[in-house]
Amino acid sequence: MEIKTIHHLETQAMKKSHNELARIGFALFFLVGVLAYSFATSGGVPNHLFLAIAAVFGGYMAMNIGANDVANNVGPAVGSKALTMGGAIVIAVIFEAGGAFIAGGDVVSTIKKGIIDINGFGGDTDSFLWAMMAALLAAALWLNIATMAKAPVSTTHSIVGGVMGAGIAAAGFGIVNWATMAKIASSWVISPLIGGIVAAGFLLAIKKTIIFREDKISASYIWVPYYVAFMAWAFVTYLVLKGLKSIWPNILTLSNDLMFFTVEVTKKPTFTTAALLGVVAAVIVYFIVKRSLKAKLHRLSNDRDSVNVLFTIPLIFAAALLSFAHGANDVANAIGPLAAINDAVMTGGITTSAGIPFWVMGVGAFGIAIGLALYGPRLIKTVGSEITELDQMRAFSVAMAAAITVIIASQLGLPVSSTHIAIGGVFGVGFLREWLDSTISIEAEIQHDKEEIESEKKRRNALRHELKDLRKKAIKSTEDYRRITDLYAAIDEERDAIRLFKKELKKDEKTLYVKRDAIKKIVTAWVITVPAAAVLAASVFYMIKGIMT
After folding, report:
1. What is the pTM of this model?
2. From the CB of residue 194, how many other CB atoms can be counted at a distance below 10 Å?
């Protein structure tokens, strides 16, 4: 039996190691392809080797964004079982890449969010190139470490820390815009707090209007269309404001060519325009959902599971739209410094913004998609099921928090992180469930289970000691043999009792809806992201400087 168990473990270990080697091999194949393409297309330019290496770092950064950050968009949908892991990855890959290519923009800021003064380099192109390369590699390394530790962190904060650390190493502390850094630090509190409050508010509204009603089906017919319509408004508004801002002038120009009337072509959409488009979408969605519910209500039973089913399709759309907006916005985290390096190499100067060649955008878009496909499941599981248990209603509330919080923050000028918002939303629905279901009694059950396990372990250990002493006796009586038999049986009973109490403990801990260990790990990772990336970037900068000089 033990030989079979060992063989099974060896088989599983080999299978796991082969899978890991395949993932690493595919990732290396992508990076080698990036290196070869960049080297081949920039061969006649000075510093072209430097640009090719920077492109590899950009691809590495993009893969880590895909592995870590994308989990926030699809994790709740997977955790609630609205999507399978495979389905979530396919949707996220398509929409992340689509968002990056379609709405990723033609120009990015070379100095992320203005955290350092570009004049601090004094026109020293080499130092600028080294700093951008160090920032890119350091941010990617930190994301890689965080992903291995199953800690969802902000990729924006990672690159911010990298740029800050490399900037300080290159030109001193005076180069940093500390007021901007203070705003970024405030997002550690603002983002999860608002996200948690919004998510908890939506879940409470769903419970009061539907779940706590005696006739849940009738209540669903009334309220679900409103919730889904509001989701449509929120996501269309969010998508226009954040996902389409880079191509907004092109959209308006195309609209003027197709319509009988013309509108003023503006650089980016206003909140009023985005909100009005959201209202149009909300009205259409309301009537579609209302009609769909009328056709299927007679097939639903009057229980919570049936209500959950009604939020499944909206959740899938939410995951897709969040992924599109994320691809449009966060691709800049991977290719911003790379675009800056490309611009500096090609022109020999330093600028505050840089055009994005198509191949650079491709590195970001494909890198995010590949990183998600290869390593995304690790963080998707963490976000979807290892913080708190999610069903479709809770996941819907988290998705709503992600869109609404960004809309609120953009109008108030508050700095927020999409990662922190999503995780804050998961915390929010978990804590609301604890509050509604009387946490004190749950914690008492957990403590009781732990005490019983310890008690059973002590009894089992006492029986084992007695058995050990009996087996040591040189001459055993008939009674001794009977006692040995009884002890074996008693030890088996204690083992079964311990298993039972552990099962009960696990069940009760699952009922204690937010895992405290997860909170500690994630919050710690958030707090140290900027300084950790900064220290890594400064170290890499000095290393590059030492090699190049």
Report:
1. 0.77
2. 25
Question: Token pair of 545, please?
Answer: 């400087």
Apex 178 CA angle, 173 and 184, nearest 5: 130
Per-residue pLDDT of the chain (549 residues; tens, 9 = 90+): 445 555 554 555 555 566 778 888 889 999 999 998 888 887 677 777 888 888 999 999 999 998 888 888 888 888 888 888 889 889 988 888 888 877 666 555 555 556 787 777 777 888 888 898 999 999 999 999 999 888 888 888 898 899 999 999 998 888 888 888 888 788 878 888 999 999 999 999 999 999 888 888 899 999 999 999 999 999 888 888 876 776 777 777 777 767 665 666 677 788 888 899 999 999 999 999 999 888 887 788 888 888 888 999 999 998 888 888 888 777 777 777 888 888 888 877 776 666 678 888 888 888 988 998 888 888 888 888 778 888 899 999 999 998 888 888 877 777 677 888 888 998 898 888 777 765 545 555 666 667 777 887 887 788 788 778 777 777 777 777 788 788 778 888 878 777 777 776 666 555 556 677 778 888 898 889 999 999 999 999 999 989 887
Q: Which conformational region is residue 340 in: left (phi greater than 0), alpha (psi within -120 to 50 degrees), or beta?
A: alpha
**Chain centroid offset of residue 191 CA:** 14
> DSSP class of residue 299?
G
Please state the domain count of the chain: 2
DSSP string, 411-478: HHT----HHHHHHHHHHHHHHHHHHHTTHHHHHHHHHHHHHHHHHHHHHHHHHHHHHHHHHH-SS--H
Q: Are 114 and 180 in contact (CB under 8 A)?
A: yes
In a shared domain, residues 475 and 374: no
Find tokens 């080999």 and name the residue: 14
Q: Which of 83, 39, 93, 88 is nearest to 62 (CA)?
A: 93
First-to-last C-alpha distance (Å) of the chain:
63
- Whether 331 and 470 map to the same domain: the answer is no
The 3-state secondary structure of 114-145 reads HCECHHHHCCCHHHHHHHHHHHHHHHHHHHHH
Tokens of 416: 């927020």
Yes or no: say if 48 and 342 are a contact pair by the CB < 8 Å rule.
Answer: no
Question: Closest Cα partner for 418 from 396, 432, 398, 433?
Answer: 398
Q: Assess if residue 5 is contained within a domain.
A: no
Which residues lie across from 214 on neighbouring strands? none
Q: Domain of 477?
A: 441-510
Residue pair 198/427 in contact (Cβ under 8 Å)? The answer is no
What span, in angstroms and rounded, lies between the C-alpha atoms of 239 and 24?
Answer: 34
215 three-class SS = coil
* Same domain membership, residue 300 and residue 197: yes
Locate 220 and state its tokens. 């669903």
- 72 plus 193 within the same structural domain: yes
